[in-house]
Design a protein that fits this description.
- The structure is a single chain.
- By secondary structure, this protein is mostly beta strands.
- It contains 2 helices and 28 strands.
- The strands form 7 sheets. Strands 11-12-13-14-28-24-23-18-21 form a 9-stranded antiparallel beta sheet, with no helix packed on it. A 6-stranded antiparallel beta sheet has the order 17-26-25-22-19-20, with no helix packed on it. A 5-stranded antiparallel beta sheet has the order 1-2-3-4-5, with no helix packed on it.
- Strand 23 and strand 24 form a beta hairpin.
């Protein structure tokens, strides 16, 4: 038996993939529906601990409450009023929907059944590539994007790599994001220590849409209550906030760190570029304020409407763009 294993199984009426590190005692489960990570179990003090606050059963996988571990493409976060313009053409993602009911968020693939394109395991790791061709022309998005998402479990933790290819005949706006929730202990996260290596806060309106132009950017020196450049307890702060101007470590990875002091269990959510969105889960539909979402995103929310993001979201016909992020674990 090799150190790692990868298999497809049925669970709660759903097709899922299980990646296992036998030697390290780690296990990752991913649903084919939405390519949502369901659990990430690691050994802590002689017992298994699930770091992922994911969907608990098949009904949640289908209903996707709070978008737990959602794959967000071809956009992450929200699009203001579900409208944007691209190459001078106005687009409406919800034609005919009245104003109070308009809400377009987190892309088009949360409810899609992905196909398994590759499954592998050897001494070095276990992996699965999940693919979908569901991003096709539709109201407000006259473009075609092929999406592949690869999860890898190895000695370093979990890596997620997303590949988006424009298979249409015109430039398309697109960017990637991931929406993981982490639970380090049964307690509320008030005492957990958070560190976000950002220099700038993204200021939003009441609908979490970044303000226009330079008004969206606030130096963290001017927002001390949301400044986590130095690791500190979350406390009673309610956070649903984007951070940018992220600083990378020497190896090129940008690490947002979360630690539970009493056990010493810690994780680092890493990415190579983009923004980090932190959310203390105060408005979720279940288990309010029992987890923290740390969301690596290629661009900020409403990027389709921002001139300062235009180059970052533009993907030419035939071109492919990749985004890598992941989770490192420091277990006591």
């Amino acid at each position: 038996m090799t150190r790692h294993a990868a298999e497809q199984v049925r669970w709660e009426g759903q097709d899922i993939v299980v990646l296992t590190d036998h030697a390290g005692g780690r296990r990752l489960r991913i649903a084919g529906h939405g390519a949502a990570l369901l659990s990430f179990e690691v050994p802590v003090a002689g017992a298994m601990h699930d770091l992922a606050d994911g969907y608990r059963d098949g009904a949640e996988v289908l209903g996707r409450p709070s978008s737990r571990f959602a794959i967000m493409a071809p956009f992450a976060g929200r699009i203001g009023d579900a409208r944007y313009a691209f190459d001078g053409r106005p687009q409406d993602l919800q034609p005919g929907v009245p104003g109070a009911e308009r809400a377009s968020r987190h892309g088009f693939v949360r409810g899609v059944d992905f196909d398994v394109a590759a499954l592998s395991a050897d001494e070095y790791g276990a992996g699965v590539t999940l693919v979908t061709t569901a991003i096709r022309p539709q109201p407000g998005y006259p473009h075609a994007i092929d999406l592949a998402v690869t999860f890898t479990l190895d000695v370093d933790g979990v890596t997620l790599e997303a590949a988006m290819r424009n298979v249409g005949d015109s430039p398309a706006p697109c960017f990637f994001g991931w929406h993981p929730y982490f639970r380090l202990a049964a307690s509320t996260p008030d005492g957990w220590q958070l560190q976000i290596p950002a220099r700038t806060l993204i200021r939003t309106d009441a609908n979490l849409i970044p303000l226009a132009g330079s008004a969206a950017y606030v130096a963290l020196d001017d927002a001390p209550s949301l400044d986590f450049r130095q690791s500190q307890p979350v406390g009673d702060r309610v956070i649903d906030q984007g951070y940018t101007d992220l600083t990378a470590d020497a190896d090129g990875r940008i690490r947002t760190r979360l630690r539970e002091p009493s056990s010493g269990l810690a994780i680092a959510v890493w990415q190579e570029r983009g923004v980090m969105h932190a959310f203390t889960a105060d408005t979720v539909s279940r288990d309010v304020r029992r987890a923290i979402a740390l969301e690596p995103m290629e661009c900020m929310a409403d990027a389709f409407n921002r001139p300062d993001c235009a180059a970052a979201v533009r993907l030419l016909p035939g071109a492919e763009r990749r985004f890598r992020c992941g989770v490192e674990v420091d277990a006591p």
